[in-house]
Specification:
alpha+beta, 3-stranded antiparallel sheet, 4 helices
């Protein structure tokens, strides 16, 4: 299915949608900003990147477009355990050079820095 059709179906009703008085938010995997919009949607877009803190470093999960029909094989997970600056640079290069949503490069870097900062306080 096309991304526009999927977005038309899930934009108002899906399991990850959180409706509040000040807006609609989404807690779906692959949505880094938690905003309910087509640009940030992890459900509607074919190529998504999910960044989460891991025990050592940051876990980056990308979806393979060619394996979309088999969900178990469609995820590619990598753990990057380097310094904050090197991690941000390597994930930004991974996202841009692989063709995974280059327009969200700044969002990826901010998520990396904030996840590492929160883990440092523990």
């Amino acid at each position: 299915m096309s991304a526009d059709l999927v977005w038309a179906l899930v934009k108002n009703n899906n399991a990850f949608l959180v409706k509040r008085s000040n807006g609609q938010f989404s807690s779906e995997p692959g949505n880094l900003t938690n905003l309910n919009s087509f640009k940030y949607s992890g459900l509607a877009n074919a190529k998504t990147v999910d960044i989460a803190p891991a025990a050592r470093g940051v876990r980056v999960t990308t979806l393979k477009v060619k394996k979309a029909n088999s969900p178990a094989l469609s995820k590619n997970t990598t753990v990057i355990a380097k310094s904050r600056r090197v991690t941000a640079k390597s994930i930004a290069n991974l996202v841009v050079r692989s063709g995974y949503r280059a327009d969200l490069r700044k969002v990826h870097v901010v998520i990396i820095i904030s996840s590492r900062r929160g883990r440092r306080r523990e």
